[in-house]
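queue> pop job 88
queue> type: inverse folding (structure -> sequence)
queue> payload:
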């Protein structure tokens, strides 16, 4: 049963109140990533200094982890090993259609930002939307900031709410059919067309609604959900509290602020040391400053600046804060090339990077599951909303392809798809190759299985035919 607009507004408000602490953590991480540390720790900085003087460790580490996680997994619509050639061709065609969805949505470039959001905010939100101009489903990775997915006890998304900031001018341009209602909703006067207001997009299995909560829940658009289900797949970072996952940098941003504070104190100490008072003997009548200055005195050894004693413990504390940041963010020193000289073996380097590889593998497994659900939604949406003849094109295993298909005939209610980073997920290329060859040599896996587990897209049936021929 579809909810009324007042019920939807109450539901969204309840979700926002419930996630207040989460939103605050996300906002703090965003501020640090943007270099705006003063907004969350003004007392750490001098009044005339609005930016940090040290490298933004959180941003550097987040980008590095995201770039490692971002490459897309392999996509295959496989059949049973005893399937006929017709069934294999049917599976291969669906594999090409799935890859067409990915390339049409430009998911390869989107995922760099999506992986960054996952590690920073602990959420990986993927929305499948109908593109009626192209007559295709489109995959979009949504920013988890101010997004509120609601789950049932099985972890399935039952509603998805997202709060956007829009200016009055943008709303009037995007929704000209309700421009008069938008302007009339500001009973105290809009003041300016550049005034920002909140826009909420709400989706459940029954309806999709866009409304302005602060303007008496003014509905801009409302439509029944043609899919009969929420077309959003959400992945959450593993946490001791599954209902409140934490990002990778939630706890280390305060260490970053402490490091920035120490940098300012070190600069202040250096400045005071250079500008310390000059001590001269009593017989000095005139004091000259600057290079090549001359002081006439019978006791030249008595001319000096007042010494500023700086404890070595301050520099030790800076190193400890740096170690705390790496420990709290699980970001090994080896990723930046700063490896202790005593560690000279390859195994030592691998041991340092072991924790990094494990978190990459965990992230990729979660993202693979989300993309698998999203591609299944693409198949279903394509068959339900765009069941007419059209073309699909792209590049598959280095070879371009183009064909025409009708979703009802090519998909046939089969929405299953396997999205895998493979058994080699988290391993570097050398170890992945050795592992797969050893598994084949020990007869622990077949060539077909290993080929499907490789971390890139491959038309396994066609490759096997070319190998045999």
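queue> result:
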């Amino acid at each position: 049963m579809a909810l009324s607009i007042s019920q939807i507004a109450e539901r969204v408000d309840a979700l926002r109140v419930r996630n207040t602490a989460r939103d605050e953590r996300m906002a703090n991480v965003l501020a640090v990533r943007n270099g705006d540390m003063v907004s969350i720790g003004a007392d750490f900085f001098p009044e005339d200094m609005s930016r940090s003087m040290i490298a933004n460790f959180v941003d550097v580490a987040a980008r590095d982890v995201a770039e490692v996680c971002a490459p897309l997994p392999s996509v295959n619509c496989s059949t049973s090993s005893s399937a006929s050639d017709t069934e294999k061709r049917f599976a291969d065609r669906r594999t090409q259609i799935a890859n067409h969805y990915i390339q049409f949505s430009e998911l390869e470039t989107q995922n760099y930002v999506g992986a960054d959001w996952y590690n920073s905010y602990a959420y990986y939100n993927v929305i499948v939307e109908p593109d009626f101009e192209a007559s295709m489903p489109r995959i979009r990775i949504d920013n988890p900031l101010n997004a509120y997915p609601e789950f049932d006890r099985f972890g399935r998304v039952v509603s998805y709410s997202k709060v956007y900031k829009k200016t009055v001018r943008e709303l009037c341009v995007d929704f000209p059919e309700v421009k008069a209602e938008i302007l009339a909703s500001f009973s105290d006067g809009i003041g300016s067309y550049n005034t920002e207001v909140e826009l909420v997009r709400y989706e459940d299995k029954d309806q999709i609604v866009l409304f302005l909560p602060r303007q008496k829940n003014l509905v801009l658009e409302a439509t029944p959900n043609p899919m009969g289900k929420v077309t959003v797949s959400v992945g959450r970072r593993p946490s001791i509290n599954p209902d409140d996952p934490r990002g990778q940098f939630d706890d280390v941003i305060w260490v970053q602020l402490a490091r920035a504070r120490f940098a300012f104190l070190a600069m202040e100490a250096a400045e005071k040391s250079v500008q310390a008072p000059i001590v001269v003997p009593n017989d000095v009548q005139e004091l000259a400053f600057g290079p090549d200055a001359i002081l006439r005195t019978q006791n030249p050894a008595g001319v000096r600046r007042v010494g500023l004693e700086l404890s070595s413990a301050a520099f030790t504390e800076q190193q400890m804060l740096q170690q705390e940041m790496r420990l709290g963010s699980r970001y090994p020193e080896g990723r930046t090339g700063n490896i202790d000289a005593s560690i000279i073996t390859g195994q030592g380097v691998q041991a340092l990077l072991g924790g990094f590889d494990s978190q990459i593998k965990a992230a990729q497994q979660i993202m693979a599951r989300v993309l698998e659900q999203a591609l299944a939604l693409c198949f279903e949406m394509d068959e339900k909303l765009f069941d007419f003849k059209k073309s699909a094109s792209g590049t598959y295993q280095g070879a371009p392809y183009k064909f025409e298909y009708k979703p009802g005939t090519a998909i046939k209610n089969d929405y299953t798809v396997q999205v895998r980073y493979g058994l080699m997920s988290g391993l570097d290329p050398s170890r992945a190759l050795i592992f797969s060859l050893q598994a084949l040599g020990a007869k622990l896996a077949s060539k077909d299985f290993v080929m499907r587990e490789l971390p890139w897209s491959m038309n396994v049936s066609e490759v096997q035919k070319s190998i045999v021929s």
